[in-house]
Amino acid sequence: MPTAQPRRRALLTLGAATLLAGAARAQSDAATGFPSRPLRVVVPYPPGGFNDTLGRLVARRLGEAWGQTVVVDNKAGAGTTIGTQFVAQSPPDGHTLLVVQFPFTTNPWLFKSLPYDTVKSFAPVLLAGRAPMVLVAHAATPYRSVADVISAAKAKPRQINYGSSGSGSSNHLAMALLESATGTELNQVPYKGSTPMLTDLAGGQVELAFDLLPHVLPFLQTGKVRALALAGAQRWPTLPELPTVSEAGVRDFVVTSWHGIVVPAGTPPAVVAKLNAQLNAILGLDEVKRAFAAQGVAPDGGTPARLAAFIDEQLALWKGVIQQRGITAE
Known about the structure:
It is built from eleven helices and ten strands. It is an alpha/beta fold. It folds into two domains: 33-131 and 257-325, D-Maltodextrin-Binding Protein, domain 2 (3-Layer(aba) Sandwich); 132-230, D-Maltodextrin-Binding Protein, domain 2. Strands 1, 2, 3, 4, 5, 6, 7, 8, 9 and 10 form a ten-stranded mixed β-sheet that branches. Helix 1 runs parallel beside helix 9 (269-283) and helix 6 (170-182) crosses helix 11. The longest helix has 29 residues, at 4-32. It is elongated, with a radius of gyration of 23 Å.
């Protein structure tokens, strides 16, 4: 006759199995019934630019695939925190998506406090694409390589002016990372946006800048701005002669303007998986590839875990740079 202890253990095992089976059924039901109403893609930027393009591509193609209305909601302001907070506080059911970019992993270190937790408040869905930054110089400067810049910066600490789109912007942090990696000190001249910064670079008011390839191309074509190196992991297909910063001697120097999709934390994993599969399919469409290429972005893709790991890497990278150099948001 079995004792009470084995019988109790058997009942506990059966209970656990029943709970797991119930959870699995609930997950399956969540994915089967999703989406059950219109979806919203929140873009924490004003209309225009690649983040808006990505949001609208995703909205249109998800709507076509699932037969649901998908609206794009531009909630700009406060360094992307307004739109990001809105999604963090939305129901975790997969019907509200957030387009995230570079500031998603720098804002935690630039602001004293945020109304959400970058890691705990969101579930990663997809790394959509990446665009490398380019180090450019005014054409009249003697700089023709990264080595030239480093040499001049060491000879003249804090005397070489570079432009940025403001304190804590991607091009400011790219230059701060270069300074940290090379033991140099340059002088930042902040602007209210990329266009006025590059206009002044072309006019010789500043000597250097990091910016995205689509932004700098028109200025390169005038001959007033010179490209020195690409801050990517490899060379860019349309500029095969342009070396990377890593090739120029600053090892593992990669700064990209990346773009991803997240949803509120607590969204059922099966729903996240369904979103991920559909978004990966969207990235594979020729029309989408052309739209990305037109704005200098390389499609990425992969699993939610891939985006989660990438976010962790970026958080660690920029925490070190921002805290070491005492950078704060304007």
